[in-house]
Amino acid sequence: MDAAINVGNSGGALVNSKGMLVGINTASAQSDRTGIQGIFFAIPYKQAKNIMDKLLADGEVKRGYLGLSGTAINQMGAPVRSSVESIAGIQITSVDPLGPAWASGLKANDVLLSVNGKQLISLSELLSFVENVEPGSIITFKLFRNGNLLNKDVEVGRLETSR
């Protein structure tokens, strides 16, 4: 955004030129050394509403967790470098040995193709989907491993946050 946030504005509404709420102001970063007047941040409205709904319903925000990282790859198995290039899947690069993905048998180099029957289109989409799944729920991945198509059920864990 290009609107300045002053001290005390965090939590305020970010509206577009039509007066529609598009986000919640959160922070600014400023530097006297570089002459930058400031970079300003806001949480998108949909994300803020999702958090609010969870807080009202449960008194807390519970986020799902798998314990894996990966990279989007194309049909040739090469990393996708552009947002306009279509992806074939998400290749797992590492798995937390204490996480739900490991416990369910997911491994580094597996290529995740879909979750609950929905084709994956980006790593960020997968992470967003998982964080909004109720911990303890079972999700099913279709994946490619060593030339074979497999289905793996994973019980989503709970993302623990430091307090």
Automatic annotation (TrEMBL):
Keyword terms, alphabetized: Hydrolase, Protease
Limits of the PDZ domain: 55-124
Pfam families (alphabetical): PDZ_2, Trypsin
InterPro entries (UniProt xref): Chloro_Bact_Ser_Proteases (IPR051201), PDZ (IPR001478), PDZ_sf (IPR036034), Peptidase_S1_PA (IPR009003), Peptidase_S1_PA_chymotrypsin (IPR043504), Peptidase_S1C (IPR001940), Trypsin_dom (IPR001254)
Similarity comment text for this entry: Belongs to the peptidase S1C family.
Stated name of the protein: PDZ domain-containing protein
Organism ancestry: Bacteria, Pseudomonadati, Pseudomonadota, Gammaproteobacteria, Alteromonadales
